[in-house]
């Protein structure tokens, strides 16, 4: 655990000398969907029922509106600021030139600690969608059922606020076949057959199995929720881009199914699988679009 340096600056908090923090890379690497780009390195995000503007200028990051108490209890955790990313990148890069390049390229990515319910619903929505479409669908859901937090922004609706929503209601939000999955997720919580907040203390395999009891939640979605909401940093979600990247870099382009790729990641990256996944995802999406097969 590392010490971070921050101070109150007017209506916000300024973080200084934070290693391995790039707000653009962190928000635009596919791990979250509730953000709006206002300008270069200037974003509005909604998380944990609050709106926050994050502006980065070099090694200074300004968070507003925010005071030091809120920053310490919410945002330092959300942005994973006490984790030593330099040490993690060094461990991943040891004897692995590919990971060294990927970690250098996306070295400002930090794994966010997101709300469990929001992550589950968001990643159910994310299936077979591009990020802008996911963002639009999530925003429609929040505007329709979430509580206003001002300035036209809405908190993510909990299962209680979605309790009366039907499959048809979800369809009207342009969720397509995912409408039935969203309805089932709400019913599971309302009927107390699944509680996302009650399973966090169990081992990763158990949490994954419980998540996959929800209709429409397969290994990829479950691993995303494990990684970004339950802090299981060994989780390695395998989507189309990750599959292409791993096959290209580590399998000489040879075929390998999702199970093989999952086993490879567990053996290769161990407890750092989630960090490796994000670096590879960002690297492949932004640098190897034409060369990864």
Could you explain the architecture of this structure?
There is one protein chain. The protein has three domains: 5-82, TATA-Binding Protein (2-Layer Sandwich); 116-229, Endonuclease III, domain 1, CATH 1.10.340; 240-287, Endonuclease Iii, domain 2, CATH 1.10.1670. It is globular, with a radius of gyration of 19 Å. It has a six-stranded antiparallel beta sheet with strand order 1-2-6-5-4-3. The protein has a two-stranded antiparallel sheet with strand order 7-8. It has helices at residues 23-27, 68-78, 85-93, 97-105, 116-125, 131-145, 167-172, 178-190, 204-211, 219-229, 240-250, 258-269, 273-287; strands spanning 5-9, 12-16, 35-39, 42-47, 50-57, 60-64, 148-150, 153-154. The longest helix has 15 residues, at 131-145. It is 46% helix and 13% strand. A hairpin with a 2-residue loop joins strand 4 and strand 5. Helix 5 (116-125) packs antiparallel against helix 10 (219-229) and helix 11 (240-250) packs across helix 13. The protein is α+β, with helices and mostly antiparallel strands and 293 residues long.
Mean residue pLDDT: 95
What structural category do the secondary elements indicate? Answer: alpha+beta
Q: What is the name of the CATH class of the largest domain?
A: Mainly Alpha
Give the total of beta strands. 8
Counting structural domains, the number is 3
Instruction: Tell me which CATH architecture of the largest domain applies here.
Output: Orthogonal Bundle
Q: What can be said about the biggest beta sheet?
A: 6 strands, antiparallel
Give the H and E element order. Answer: EEHEEEEHHHHHEEHHHHHHH
Helix content: 40-55%
CATH topology of the largest domain: Endonuclease III, domain 1
Radius of gyration: 19 Å
> What is the strand content?
5-15%
């Amino acid at each position: 655990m590392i010490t971070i340096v921050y101070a109150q600056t007017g209506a916000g908090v300024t973080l200084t000398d934070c290693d391995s923090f790039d707000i653009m890379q962190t928000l635009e690497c596919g791990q979250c969907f509730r953000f709006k780009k206002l300008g270069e390195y200037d974003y509005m995000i909604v998380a944990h029922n609050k709106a926050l503007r994050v502006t980065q200028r070099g090694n200074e990051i300004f968070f507003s509106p925010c005071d030091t108490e809120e920053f310490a209890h919410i945002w330092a955790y959300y942005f994973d600021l006490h984790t030593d990313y330099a040490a993690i990148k060094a461990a991943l890069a040891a004897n692995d030139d590919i990971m060294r390049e990927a970690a250098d390229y996306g070295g400002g990515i930090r794994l966010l600690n997101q709300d469990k319910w929001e992550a589950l619903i968001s990643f159910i929505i994310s299936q077979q969608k591009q990020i802008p479409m996911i963002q639009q669908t999530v925003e429609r859901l929040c505007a329709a059922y979430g509580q206003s937090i001002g300035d036209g922004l809405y908190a993510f609706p909990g299962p209680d606020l979605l309790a009366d929503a039907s499959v048809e209601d979800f369809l009207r939000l342009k969720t397509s076949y995912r409408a039935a999955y969203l309805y089932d997720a709400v019913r599971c919580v309302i009927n107390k057959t699944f509680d996302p907040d009650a399973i966090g203390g169990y081992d990763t395999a158990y949490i994954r199995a419980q998540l996959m009891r929800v209709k429409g939640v397969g290994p990829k979605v479950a691993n995303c929720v494990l990684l970004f909401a339950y802090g299981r940093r060994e989780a390695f979600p395998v989507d189309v881009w990750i599959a292409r990247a791993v096959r290209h870099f580590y399998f000489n382009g040879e075929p390998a199914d999702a199970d093989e790729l999952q086993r490879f990641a567990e053996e290769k990256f161990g407890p750092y699988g989630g960090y490796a996944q994000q670096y590879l995802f960002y690297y492949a999406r932004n640098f190897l679009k034409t060369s990864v097969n």
